[in-house]
Each structure stands twice: as structure tokens, then as C-alpha cells.
Input
Amino acid sequence: MTERVDRSGLKVDAGLAAFIEEQVLPPIGQDAASFWEGFAQLAAVHARRNRELLDKRDLLQAQIDAWHVDRAGRGIDQDEYQAFLRRIGYLVPEPDAFTISTRDVDPEIANMAGPQLVVPVLNARFLLNAANARWGSLYDAWYGTDALDAAPAQGPGYDPARGAAVIAAGRAFLDEAVPLKAGSWADLESPEFLELADDRQYLGETDKGLLFSNNGLAIEVQFDATSAVGSTDRAGISDIVLEAALTTIVDLEDSIAAVDAQDKLAAYANWLGVIRGDLTDTFEKNGRALTRTLAADKAVTLQTGEKAVLPGRSLLFVRNVGHLMTNPAILLPDGGEIPEGILDAVVTSAISTQDVKGLTKYGNSRKGSIYIVKPKMHGPEECAFANDLFDAVEDLLGLAHHTIKVGVMDEERRTSANLAACIREVRERIVFINTGFLDRTGDEIHTSMHAGPMIRKAAIKGSTWIQAYEKRNVAIGLRHGLSGVAQIGKGMWAAPDMMRDMMEQKIAHPRTGANTAWVPSPTAATLHAMHYHQVDVFGLREGLAASDIPGLDQLLQVPLADGTNWSEEEVRDELDNNAQGLLGYVVRWIDQGVGCSKVPDIDDVGLMEDRATLRISSQHMANWLLHGVCSEEQVMDALKRMAAKVDAQNAADPHYEPMAGDWDTSMAFQAACDLVFKGAAQPSGYTEPLLHEWRLRKKAA
Output
């Protein structure tokens, strides 16, 4: 039974109350009684408005469902469809010309282009790794992955042949990024003879070597002729270290399983630790206990002889949850649970206020800002609500308005269709927009669930609407002044073991004009950083700014499989693919409380999956089931066969609980079934309500 304490009418989990009153409020000079009184008033106003917005979502969806049912078999006429969407308020008028006016934005967001990590807040080791991924060894990234097209390393120790290939690739990279006045880096015999083609690229010296700059990113060439690598190098170069993950999103949303006060407290404690600068994690590796801490800043002696420091850590955003879910960590005076997004906004901002006030070991924002990514907002009304909520939080904490900056995830259809209006509602605090295939496709399917069966999941990536969606995101962002102020981002590369493929494909992201894109690991961040040396994003944007914005006729083309008759084998393959991906993630979420991990796909390729993969898979299966493409029996057959496959894929995990055969007792399997068979009825197709219900049952058991 949860122990609760009364705080101004709020029934607060005792552990959470103690954490806030003992660790969060005293350093920032907040009186606990005044804080709780203000929190209670804030919650009373905003919880009611939050509920009204969710009711609006349900009303719009019911109207869209009815429209499609009434026109079954008639196809979708875009003029008629868009007129209907405007009439019900799903589409709003395009705003008059405006430019965002966000101030006090750190350069990593406003003026630099580079990789972005997303890391689950509940895993302290991963969190520290991500925060420290501001700098990464290119030699290590090449040596230990398939990114380098050379024979893999042989033996447990250092392989000189592999090392030579890495050194040669490093020289080629330097020739492109920091060319010499004459000759090649491969011919360099000593740093004393180094002359650059452009002297402005030289920044200064570090304690390990020389620092250069290209396209706004730093490159550290380290020299140590006594090291294993440097001793084989004619110039004594021991490593090339790249400025890599400029920013990291510390995630309280899709990559964690947080369903109660215990989970939320663990999440907030890690956020406090990383902000305060004292977070550590001790773990065992190769039989030795290792302790990880945050990296210090990098000291530089400039050409002038002056001393300077470069940030040693990634600039941190915190991703709060969206507007949908509530959490039992706090009960409102009427007995209902607090909307979790309101709880996150207050607590993560209160923690971050220690950074704003300069009370932390290293400091996160040098501009005194708090960066919150807000996901899963539907349209401009919900963005306006987030803006007002952050105003209220700033008042509660005694912060100037717009201290809290917002990143808007463009991952819901109503937001995509009204993106300019959404940006306008947060124009004084917006620092980020991005795109995401999985959630956006899940909402695409659910919004048009009753329009007809969708094309196969893999084919959706090439459909008209998603091409328009990706282009509109960049073009609308540029039109309204995000360049030089905010990030325009692209989605995740999900396969951490397929770095060669990533290097071939992910360069497409900076070429769109996006100044950041998500990567699954610090190693991937180091490799992806090379793309931003190849592409001058801000220079590229000058030619993109005048580009036409794809219209709604393209964006709102529903990916229907009109007239398609799939074979029984094609249906089985599609169901198997969806069921395997669904089960492989659900079983860890429900049974172990793991919200993000490398999950083998149906072909045994490890993919970094979070909750968004459930939304697209469950919605696609629910859509085919609704329209008779498959039967309940076929879906259940796929789920049971894929449960056995997932069991086999996890056979080496001592904590794993098999599903196959335990159909009535495996909560993970039952949760997966619910996600499909109840999928059409879930709010916006979200998986959170069912996942939370089953996870709470599992924890109780």
C-alpha cells in the first residue's frame, strides 16, 4: 500500500514528497509549503484543461471515424475531405507570417549541426555514457564496428592490420575535413611541420594534441608516440577525437517503463544526479568493478595563449511525457491521478532550476535555459496548453517566463497538418522540431482506421504522405525562423550493429537541411558526426529557404491498399513481422520494466526499440483485422508462433520469462493480445493505457 502525505490537498507519495522537500527545493530557496500550495493551484487549473483537450481528441476521432464509415467504398476526395476536416476544427487556418522569437538558446541548439542521442533516464550507466558522448574516439568507432570497410580485428589484443586500416581512414578523413596547404596527412611526419590550407581551422592545443574546427565542429588530433597506436604512426598520432553528440534527450517517455511513484522517483533522482553533476554508476566489466562519472570540460590553449574550455558533456534536454497519461504518484483532491505531463513539468523543471541558478558541478545550459521536449501533442491547442503550463511552472518556481524552452515532436497527424500554427503557439520558447516515422505512422493508421485497409508497413516508408511530411517539417521550420535559433531534427537509426549501412544512408538527414538527427549509441554519434563535416547544413539552408512547402493534398493522402488482394503467404508474412516486433518489445516492458533495449527483429537483427514500435505494429494489425484482411484466428496464430520465436531469441537471458504455452498466465503475452485486439479502440492508437495496466498487474504479482 502506498504511503501518502497531504500537501495542500494533494495526496503525495511519501517518498516523492521527501525527495522534493529534501533534495530539490532547499538548494533553490523554495519554501516547501508555498511550493505545494502553488503546485495544488496549478494542478487544479491545468488538470481540468488537460482533460478537455483529451475529450477534444476523442470527439474529433469519432467524427472522422463516422465520416469514413459513411463513405465506405467511395475513396477519398481531397477537397471534400479537407473541407470536412476544417469544418470540425481538425485543420485550422494557416497563421499570418511570423518569425519565432526564442532567446537565450545555447549554441549547440541554435548554431551547430551534429548528432543527438536519446537515452532512457532509468538506466544510469546509459545516461552517463550519453552525457559523456560529446567527444568520441573515431579510431575506436572504426576499429570496433563494421563502419570501416576492412578485415575485422583478429585476436583479443590490438590487431596491427586493423589498426593500419583505421589510421589510413583517419588520414583520409582529415584530408577532407582539415586539408593541409600541401600534400596529405598521410605524409605528415611531425605536428611541427603541419600547415593548413585554411589557418582559421586551427583552434589551439589541448593536453593531448591539437584542436581544429570544421563546419562548427571540433576535431582533436591526439599525439602520443609511446601508445600502441601512436607508436605505429609516422607522425605519432594516437587518436582522432570528434565532437559528436552535441545534445542528448534524457527520456522520461517512450524509452522507459514508469507506471507508479516508485518508477517516477527513480527517474527524477537520475535527472537530479545528472543535472547536479554527481550521478555515478558502478558496474562489473571483465571481472572488475568500474565506476562511471560525468566527464570534465576540455581545456584548450588558444592561438593567442589565452586559456579556454570546451564543454565536456552533451547539452541535455529532458523529454517529459505527453498529455494522455496520469500517474498515481500524486492524487488530486477529487481522488483522481495527476496528469503525468503536469507532474513531469513541475518536477523536472524544479530540478533544472538548480542549473539555472548555477548550483551544479558542471552546468548544463550556459544560457540559463531549461530544455523540455514535449511529445505527442495534437495540434495548436495542445501546444498552447503546453506553453501556458510552462508559464505557470515558471511562476511557481520564480523563473522568468520562457526560461523553459520547448521541443515540439512533430509525430501526430494533426500537428503535421497544422505545423506552422503549432510553432506559432510556442514561438517565444520553441527550440526544436523533429520527425519520427513510427509514432507518426501509428497516428496515420489510427486516424484513418475506418477508411480501409492500409498498405503493408514497409511500403508506408515510400508513400506520398511521409515524403511530404519530412519535407514540410524542414521547410516550415525554416520559413518561420528556426535556423540559427532552434534545431530541426530527423529520426533514429535503429540498428546499432549496422554502422556501415548507417554511414551510407544517414547522410541523407543533414542533406535535408536538418541540423540534428537521432542515433542509438555514443559510437554511432561519433560516426554520424562525420556526416556534418561532409555537409555544411547552415550553408545548405540558404538554398532551401525559398523551397516550396508540399501541400496538404500530399500530406493527407491516406496510404490505403485500394483494390489490393494479398496472398495468404503475404498476409502471414506481414502478421508475423508485426507480431514478432510487438512481442519482442512487450515481453521486456511488462516482465522486466525495460522500456528501451536492443531487440532482435524477425531476421535476428538487433534494433533499438522503444514504445513507438508497438504503436505502429499493433495499429497495423488492428487495421487489417477490422477490414477483414485477416481473421482473429490468423492473428492469434501469428502471435503464438512468434511468441515461441521470441522465447528462443531470449533463451540466454536468465531473467526472461517464456511466453509460449503459458497463454493464460503470461501477462506479457496477454498484453500483446490486448494491444492488437483492442487496438482500434485505444486513444489515438496509443499503447500506454494497456501497457501501464498490465505492468502494474505484473508488479503487484
